[in-house]
Write a structure and sequence with these properties.
By secondary structure, the chain is an all-alpha fold. 73% of the residues lie in helices and 0% in strands. The chain has four helices and no strands. Helix 2 packs across helix 4 and helix 3 packs antiparallel against helix 4. It is extended and about 60 Å long.
Length: 145
């Protein structure tokens, strides 16, 4: 029978530990708490309004929510030209384009990415609410049986 090899336990130096701690603290300082609170507030308002409408047996509440999610996601995807985060670089563009055309395309792409980032603010809470609604409507009834 083959003997199992034991993994060596990695020992970190004091400098590595302090640099890791300082990197973690710097990343926490960069966290955008204002944006996180805005997203939580939008989600809370949407969820309260949506579930009040559902409790009042309003028939159009679910189709409106799902249509809004689809429209926001489609608009984000079209405006952002996919899921890329970084703007297009000069090397990605065709060589036969003029410098002016490349500059105009890069400027347009940067503006589009900025608009798409703003569009994500209402899109994320709506998609989260849709996901939770799908879990409540589709998955929970299957678990109860």
């Amino acid at each position: 029978m083959a003997k199992k090899k034991r993994k060596k336990k990695r020992t970190y130096t004091y400098d590595e530990l302090t640099s890791a701690k300082s990197d973690l603290k710097a990343s926490l300082r960069r966290f955008n708490y204002k944006l996180a609170l805005l997203l939580i507030a939008i989600f809370a308002v949407l969820a309260v309004v949506y579930y009040i409408l559902i409790a009042m047996c309003v028939v159009w509440a679910m189709p409106v929510l799902y249509t809004a999610a689809a429209v926001l996601f489609s608009a984000f995807f079209i405006i952002n030209r996919g899921f890329s985060r970084e703007p297009v670089s000069r090397e990605m563009l065709p060589d036969d384009w003029t410098e002016e055309k490349k500059d105009a395309y890069i400027a347009d792409d940067t503006e589009r990415k900025a608009l798409a980032r703003k569009l994500m603010i209402p899109m994320v809470p709506v998609l989260l609410l849709v996901g939770i609604d799908i879990l409540i409507v589709m998955v929970l009834p299957m678990l109860r049986t």
